[in-house]
Amino acid sequence: MRKWKITGCLVLATVLLCGAGEPRVYATNLSNITSDSIREMEDQIDNAQNERDQLKNGLSDIKKLVQQLEQEKKDLKSYVAKLDENMAQIEQKIAELKIQIADKETDIEEAGRQLEHAMEVEANQYETMSNRIKFSYERGENYFLEMLLGSTSFADFLNRSYYMEQVADYDNQMLESFIQTREYVELCKAQLEQDKAFLDEAKAGVEIEQAALEELMDQKARELDAYEQRISTGEQSIDEYEADIKAQEELISALEKAVEDEKKRILASSGKVLTYDGGTFKFPLASYTRISDEYGMRTHPTLHVPQFHNGVDLASPKGTAIYAAYDGIVVAADYSSTMGNYVMIDHGGGLYTIYMHASKLYVKKDDVVARGNTIAAVGSTGRSTGPHLHFSVRLNGEYVSPWNYISP
After folding, report:
1. Secondary structure (DSSP) of 67-123
2. Can you give the pLDDT at residue 405?
3. CA distance 191 to 107
4. Which of 271, 316, 325, 378 would staple 281 via disulfide (CB 3.0–4.6 Å)?
5. Phi, psi dihedrals of residue 283, rounded to the nearest 5°
6. How many helices (H) and strands (E) in the chain?
7. Rg (CA), the chain
8. Secondary structure letter of residue 142 according to DSSP
9. How far is CA 342 from CA 248, 339, 358, 396, in A?
10. Contact by Cβ (8 Å): 4, 131
């Protein structure tokens, strides 16, 4: 602890000083600012630097991801699943960075206010001490000696001596407090600069991750286009394409059978079972830009052969809310390499709706949903080259036109 010697009386001020880093430390009184609190602030500045290093090290290495994906191209299903997994991880990083940015902006705003107040107090302390020193200088070196010699008795002499000693100690304490306040303010400034640097790097990190995400999306679109070009070269390739669709339908049929078996069990035990009441479906999207592919038979764009499209594709911006078309029970909320993230809902009476290629799922198997509940968000997972919702309706094990239940 440094020792400073001055004489005279200073006015004790109360101040709320700024801290920075995690956890934030705020001094509510100048007496709280000690060498320990200064060391704490220095540690927080070191931690802030580590936080910035972790941010840099946590950014996606897009070149490494692309190299890893090259090894998966021989198996399209594995490739799509791995690519979707990478995109989901990048989207999670972007979400976490945005949270960190919001938190850091709050920290900077609060720290700026506290630092401004602390600097005002520092200036007031400096002015008070300057006036005190000026007062002592004007009185001269003999002022305190004259006070002692002016004592009217020995008791008065002792009282005056004790008073002067207390004033000197008090002055020394206030000078030490001022020195520590000044040092603390400088550390606050350094911490604030670290916070601002982290904020800038986090914002740059969002741009890096967003660019990585877009590059993976472009790569996926190119590979799926190339795949469809390849399968247009012969009947065997067409069979391969149709086998993927068949596998998708087999999965959905298996889910339907499992539901129907469960309904029979419930019916046998209680006599109660979910039944569709014939109501009108809610349109399954909050908004859409166009119908990118209709339900029914059409000529495949790359195979150039008649193909049945078992739903309607609704192009919509990524993240657009997907709604449950009607009351029901979630049969599945899962991922497949063709459907991507998908939700399947049982509405009773053999009626099901299916929602494919979502970026996020907000429901899980066995959840009860009401007409209009948000169940997912539009994405481009699975066999998809752009953000859209593939919406299908099945009745008694067969696909039917969604337009029988909704209107555009």
Report:
1. HHHHTTTTSHHHHHHHHHHHHHHHHHHHHHHHHHHHHHHHHHHHHHHHHHHHHHHHH
2. 93
3. 11
4. 325
5. -60, 135
6. 6, 12
7. 36
8. T
9. 11, 6, 6, 20
10. no
- Report in angstroms the alpha-carbon separations of 330 from 109, 134, 216, 260, 333: 45, 81, 31, 13, 7
Q: Spell out the residues 6+ positions from residue 268 whose beta carbon is closer than 8 angstroms to its own.
A: none
Instruction: Give CA–CA dist 44/266, Å, rounded.
Output: 60
Cis omega before residue 23 (within 30°)? yes
Give the tens place of pLDDT for each residue, 205-231. Answer: 888 888 877 887 787 777 777 766 655
Q: Are 82 and 72 in contact (CB under 8 A)?
A: yes
The CA–CA distances, whole Å, from 348 to 150, 277, 376 equal: 105, 8, 21
Report which residue type is found at 125.
Answer: Q
Structure tokens that stand for 16 in this block: 């709320």
CA distance 295 to 282: 18
Q: Identify residue 408 by its one-letter amino acid code.
A: P
- pLDDT grade for 401, boundaries at 50, 70 and 90: very high
